[in-house]
Amino acid sequence: MPQRDESDRRAASQVDLSLALDSLQRRSCAYGSLPHHYKPQYSFESPSSTTSASTTRSNSTADEEEDGKRRLHWNKVDDAGVKADLMRLWFTEFSDIQRNAFLREMIELCGPPQIHTLSLLVEDQLHRDCPHNCKDFLAWLPQHVCHAILSHLDPVSLARASQVSHLWRELATNEFLWKKLCLAHSWTLKKPESSTWKDFFAMRWRVRKNWLSARCHIRTFVGHTHAVTCVQMDDTRIVSGSHDQTIKVWDVRTNSKWSVMTLVGHSGTVRCLQLLGGESTPKLVSGSSDGTIKVWDLAMKPEWSSIACRTTMVGHLETVRCLQADEERVISGSYDRTLKIWCIKTGRCLRTLTGHTGKVLTVFYDAADNTLISGSDDCHIKVWRMESGHCVNTLEGHTEAVTSLTLAAGDGSERRIISGSLDRTIKVWSLLSGDCLSTLDWMNSEGHTGVIRCLQADSWRIVSAADDKTIKMWSLESGKRLVTFRKHEDGVTCVHFNDFTMVSGSYDKTVKLWDFRVC
Amino acid sequence: MSLNGDCNGEVTPPDLDQEPLVSCCRHCKEAATKPYVEGAAAPRTTIVIGTSEGYVLQVPMYPLIKHSAVIRDLLYDYCKNSQRTDPVLRLKPEFDAATLTRVVEWCNHHGDVDLSQPFEDMCEWDLEFLKIDIKSLMDLVKASYYLEIDGLGDLSCHGLAQVMGGKNPEQLRDMFHRANLHGDDWYDQQSDCSTDAVAGDEASETP
């Protein structure tokens, strides 16, 4: 009779239990402090009734419900209640280490419902003895460790972290963090003394975002009667040369018609010009299809513009197509297939470089490398050594005339030549080896569909203007097109940019100023 | 490495006669400069470190003292003090076993790194090593800071930053703050415009 056996065993165990309880009660007076419904009651039910309950439990669901009710109220005499009391007593006698071990074992025995109950019960207790905001590691870690963590964040995450709480804001507004971020990014702007590194970074970020999304304020300067061929700017003025044989100097700060200075003197199309800085003696150098180069003094008042021309350099036999000037000399390229180097003070020709077999269309001089590069109608780019006047390298690759050239920083110390051409492609070359590194064309890179007229590059981007009425900005690193600017109604002939603004001239006779400082 | 879960502190002390704990530690400054080769005979020297749960950890000595100047100095002091009977090295503050195990694991893996060189970039093992929960990461940051293990500190800081990255302020608050106990603790919404300009962007759009 298995049932009989079980009831015997149960009875025996209950005797054991009551004995144990008796002995415990003698030893401990902990009962006084227990809630009343946990007080043990010593009148056990008869073994048979317990047995019947336990045997029917497995069979009928009605009894199971009743049993559940009984177990909810442990003030009724119950096997489980007694055991619970016993455990409680034992538990109070445990040492801390024993308690931990016991709890660990008990938790292992728990199923999902118990774990759930447990989580609800201890939820409020979990952080009872912790310091305030124990999860907030920035609050309790030493400050320099906090900064070490924050220094691994990208700018956006860092800014967001500074919005979390006052403490986080204090930590995340640290000057060094933002300075590091400022210096980490390759594009350079001058930081004003007054602003913090964070504000400076944010300003830079905003300007850059505006560049990348082509969000800008555009001003249009109307006045030329023919296509604009060349344009330059500084902080206060824009100068533009045109097919109408004049140079106009526009004041950026005002829209007044009267503040425009017109420089008349060339007897042909003004093809190229360069603005030379210095607030005290601003100068302008221009080259024209009449074969001359003129140096103008811009310190003149507008009404005296007719006597602004200081020097005229005569020597080229045909159109002066391109020039570059600094405080000492002017380097010019001409349709007569030569490059000439002039002294800007005396106006004398110092040297003539020959070698191109076609019209020289573009020239770029880099003082740091002491290297001169020129592009020509004969599809070649030539690299010249400035001091000797020798041609060091000839780059072949373009299938049509090279219209524009610039030098840009490459990986490490390596410099790269960027060239634009009539064949509608932009090519990137290694200055040292003369190899073509990449080509940006219409087919593969969503490039220009028209002749490329002008190029400029800085530390992170290339800007190109073309006959397809667009200006495109490219990533110097990847060669990806970043953004396309469309506003001109005809081909764009020239473009010049700095960190905040860009100026462009077009066949549509206008000059446009793109200002990216807007919010 | 073994985790002795003995509750009553009945830890078998490292056999001082056999294990050259004392003799090694007298030269531990020099020993630390020796490259650690896994599986070689010498580095089997172990030390016993106490954890905050009352356990002790028996761990290889060389990788630890190579990376951690704190443990090196502790051992040095420990060995100078000849009256010491407690075989267990007690750190202050103590760390839990899981954290210490991770520290040791990292030190073991980077046992043959030349410390005079700047630390190289994270390897795949490191990135795998970082795949732990935030609490463990915080403990790891704390431990590597107190034990002055620069490489591990860098790594765990990077790990934490990774967790924080790309989250908006609300998510960060959820993760790192408890219920809003102190209302004035939160950043007031009148934020400055430079923060907004940067924070408003997508994290992926980093220039």
TrEMBL record, chain A:
Q: Where is the F-box domain?
A: 135-181
Q: Look up keyword Repeat and say if it applies.
A: yes
Q: Which SUPFAM superfamilies does the protein's record reference?
A: F-box domain, WD40 repeat-like
Gene3D superfamilies annotated for this entry?
1.20.1280.50, YVTN repeat-like/Quinoprotein amine dehydrogenase
Residue ranges, compositional bias (Low complexity): 43-61
Which residue ranges run through the membrane?
none
Q: Which UniProt keywords apply?
A: Repeat, WD repeat
Q: Where is this region: Disordered?
A: 37-69
Q: Note the InterPro entries from the entry.
A: F-box-like_dom_sf (IPR036047), F-box_dom (IPR001810), FBXW2 (IPR042627), WD40/YVTN_repeat-like_dom_sf (IPR015943), WD40_PAC1 (IPR020472), WD40_repeat_CS (IPR019775), WD40_repeat_dom_sf (IPR036322), WD40_rpt (IPR001680)
Which windows of the sequence hold WD repeats?
221-260, 263-298, 313-352, 353-394, 395-439, 445-484, 485-519
Check the record and name the SMART domains matching this protein: FBOX, WD40
- Repeat is among the record's keywords: yes
What is the name of this protein? F-box domain-containing protein
Q: To which species is this protein native?
A: Notodromas monacha
High-level lineage: Eukaryota, Metazoa, Ecdysozoa, Arthropoda, Crustacea
TrEMBL record, chain B:
Taking every annotated instance into account, which residue ranges of this chain make up the domain SKP1 component POZ?
A: 47-110
Ligase as a keyword of this entry, yes or no, is: no
Q: Which UniProt keywords apply?
A: Ubl conjugation pathway
Question: Is-annotated flag, keyword Methyltransferase?
Answer: no
- GO biological process assignments: ubiquitin-dependent protein catabolic process
- InterPro entries hit by this protein: SKP1, SKP1-like, SKP1-like_dim_sf, SKP1/BTB/POZ_sf, Skp1_comp_POZ
> Which Gene3D superfamilies does the record match to this protein?
Potassium Channel Kv1.1, Chain A
SMART domains documented for this protein: Skp1
Alphabetized Pfam families for the sequence = Skp1_POZ (PF03931)
The organism's superkingdom is given as Eukaryota
Family assignment from sequence similarity:
Belongs to the SKP1 family.
Name this protein carries in UniProt: SKP1 component POZ domain-containing protein
Its taxonomic placement starts with: Eukaryota, Metazoa, Ecdysozoa, Arthropoda, Crustacea
